[in-house]
What does this fold into?
Amino acid sequence: MKLRPAAAAALLLLGLAACTNDAPAATDGGRTVTDGRGQQVSVPAAPARVVTLSEPTLDGALALGVTVVGTTSGRGQGAVSAYLADRAAGIPIVASVAGPNLEQILTLQPDLIVTDGTVTADDSVLGKLAAIAPTVYVSPTGADWKAAFTTLGEVLGKQAEAQQVLAGYQSRVDETKAELGDRADDTVSIVRWGLGQPSLLLRELPPSKVLADLGLRRPPAQDRDGPGHSSPVSRENLDQLDADWMFFGTLGGATNPAGGNTGDAAAVGRAASQTMLDDDAVATPGFTALTAYRNRQVVPVDGSAWTSSGGPLAATVILGDVAEAMTAS
It folds into this structure.
């Protein structure tokens, strides 16, 4: 007898607390992959109903043309990351960075679930997800985005396509580097600004990796590895934000130390960053004295691509913004 979704969900909520990470076996002659925790997981050879529970796994799955039936809202947002809105139109939201909605995921009948360390995913949560469908924890917090995307391609049975995507990214990097000219020696800052709290993106995060691929230098305060999310900066230390260029993004609301934002979840995109720059940042004592501001080289950008976690699609947005700003003259 096939249970109705509501009944199945009720059984899930009653019974999953005791389950382990032993995923249902793939039924299409599937493969075994090693996840980001070193555990082996049996996955379908060609997954057709994939749930992506993090921003990087959604980005990567869309870049590979995979059918995504459920996903997560972007950090500080009520919907998917703004830069993915067109590609992800119509995909149900069944999670946030704080965790998944198991009942909603169950009703989607996925054949594969993918997640990573950019969202809350402890062993208990992963075990409950694995009782629904094979679940792969792709990569830990702070992992190199290209390595994580390569692993995702293997998990999704799209290894060749993933290499093609990365080759296309590298071609774009080479083109942009050639166009930078003398500005290749400029320093570049990445700032996320929430009401009451600016923060920096340090070297281990995906946007910083893109700048490193371009050979662009970071100012001393940002030329270091961090905790795997943005690092808050007090308003008394605004000099840590300064560089020749500042790419300035917001996700709306106030930044918290764990890397998330609170407040207006709709305040994303370049226009939102411009508003945050005009209404809050320039009113902060010392901001208008920064080199980037005085030289009119503070560039408002889409914070969902620049100041959160992503994959090749976010990296492409970042490359485009750098080219537009720094190769314009």
Remarks:
- Confidence is low (pLDDT under 50) at residues 1-14, 16-26, 254-266.
- The radius of gyration is 20 Å.
- The longest helix spans residues 159-180.
